[in-house]
Every structure is written in C-alpha cells, then in structure tokens.
Recover the amino acids of this structure.
C-alpha cells in the first residue's frame, strides 16, 4: 500500500530524501507515459491489421467474381466457336446464335461497367521515367570515324572489310578482286 505525502509533509523531509522522492516520481511518470504510448501503438497496429484483413477479404471477393466472370466468358466463347466452326450436327441455328451473342454482349457490358466502377477509386499513375538509349548529360560524347569506303559495296562482308581498312593507302588486292566480281 502506498501512502501519498502532502506538501507539508514533503517539506519536512530532509533535502536528500525529497530529491530521491521527486526523482522516483519523475521515473514513474516517464514509465506511465511510455506505457500509454506503447498502448497507442498497439491499438494502431491492431487497427491496421484489421484494415488489412478487410482489404484482403475484399480483394478475395473480387478475385472470385472475376474468376466466375472469366469462366462464363470462356464458356460463351467456346459455344460461339462451336457454333461457327463445329460439325454441322453441332452447329446452332441462327436464332440460337443470336441469343448466344446477346448473352455475350451483356456479359461483356457487365464486365466493363464493373471494371469502370472499380477503376473510379484509383488514381492513374504517371508513366515511368526511363532513359532508354540515351546517355546522361554529364558523360562525355566521343565520336570516331573509322574509315571511309572509296567505292560502293553491296554485301555486308564488304562493308566490314571497308570499315576496318585504313582510309589512306591502297586496299588489299584480294579484296578488290572479290569486290569487282561481286558488283
């Protein structure tokens, strides 16, 4: 059992005892503050977990709905293919085909409206910033000309030979013989 001291009783105590009591009171207050903060964090974590479970349940429901819709659309496509390309005995008459196409149109329209309703709450993302094929501005550009071809070659192997040949001086004789026969 703890007894609380009044201000008068505390003033009568020696200064060292008073300092110890005030320090202990401060420690107790700090511990109570930490405990309250920990309780708040725990409550926030529980709320977050509950929201995540609700979100997971909603996503699970959406997945189930989309799977059912997907199966329905696959069935309709299968029936349509059978009606168009199946054996003569398996083909539908035009009236049944019209009914099937109407079912297909209504299913597609329903799927589009559901996707629009789901998409309204989402914000559009900005396109990704990619640097494809361009060097950053801070890098130095170096341009080298390997050599100039003095004649017009039509084959890739001759282009490679011309690009690797020095620009000055006569070309190798074997190259010109094969190049002149190829032109």
């Amino acid at each position: 059992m703890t007894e609380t001291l009044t201000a008068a009783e505390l003033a009568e105590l020696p200064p060292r005892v008073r300092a110890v009591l005030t320090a202990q009171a401060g420690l107790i207050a700090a511990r109570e503050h930490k405990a309250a903060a920990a309780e708040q964090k725990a409550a926030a974590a529980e709320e977050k977990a509950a929201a995540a479970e609700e979100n997971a349940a909603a996503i699970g429901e959406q997945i189930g709905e989309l799977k059912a819709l997907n199966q329905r659309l696959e069935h309709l496509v299968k029936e349509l293919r059978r009606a168009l390309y199946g054996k003569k005995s398996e083909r539908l008459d035009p009236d049944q085909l019209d009914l099937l196409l109407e079912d297909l149109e209504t299913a597609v329209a329903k799927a589009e409206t559901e996707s629009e309703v789901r998409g309204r709450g989402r914000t559009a993302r900005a396109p990704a910033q990619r640097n494809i094929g361009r060097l950053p501005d801070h890098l130095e550009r170096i341009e080298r000309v390997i050599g100039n071809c003095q004649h017009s070659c039509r084959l890739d192997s001759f282009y490679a030979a011309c690009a690797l040949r020095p620009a000055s001086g006569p070309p190798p004789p074997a190259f010109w013989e094969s190049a002149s026969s190829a032109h």
Observations:
- The mean pLDDT is 76.
- Helices lie at 7-12, 15-85, 94-120, 156-164, 173-182.
- Residues 150-183 form one domain.
